[in-house]
Design goal:
With 123 residues, the protein is mainly alpha-helical. It is built from 5 helices and 2 strands, in the order H-H-H-E-E-H-H. The chain is 49% helix and 11% strand.
């Protein structure tokens, strides 16, 4: 779920409010170019998270489906409805039925984590 949340926030150009914020070296350099000194103690590496080996295929499958979201347009803008499972199944057609069912279950968990963020609902 963390990978799906991170992807959804990045897709919207936002930062996950549940993650601690810090200045990375690039941002500190931007401040210094503007004449604002940033103490070295304030600079840290961007936070990352690990993906367990058993989840790696599901995460990469989710990321490969970035363009396969069903979206509805309305007067308030776009609303993400969910992944296009037909397109997803087609993309992974070489898998056995059991492997597809396991992957689909994982994709649905990540989809549920990403949908509220993509639709701008409070985190």
């Amino acid at each position: 779920m963390a990978a799906a949340r991170a992807w959804a926030f990045a897709r919207r150009g936002l930062i996950d409010p549940e993650q601690s914020q810090s200045l990375d070296q690039d941002t500190a350099s931007d401040f210094e170019a503007l004449g604002v000194a940033v103490p070295a103690a304030e600079i840290s590496e961007p936070e990352a998270f690990d993906v367990w080996r058993c989840n790696w295929r599901s995460v990469t499958a989710f990321l490969s489906l970035e363009t396969q979201w069903r979206v509805a347009a309305g007067p308030a803008g776009f609303a993400f409805l969910g992944l296009d499972y037909t397109a997803a199944k087609s993309a992974f057609s070489g898998r056995s039925r059991r492997a597809w069912q396991n992957l689909l279950a994982d994709l649905q968990i990540m989809e549920r984590a990403a949908l509220p963020i993509l639709n701008g609902e409070p985190a």
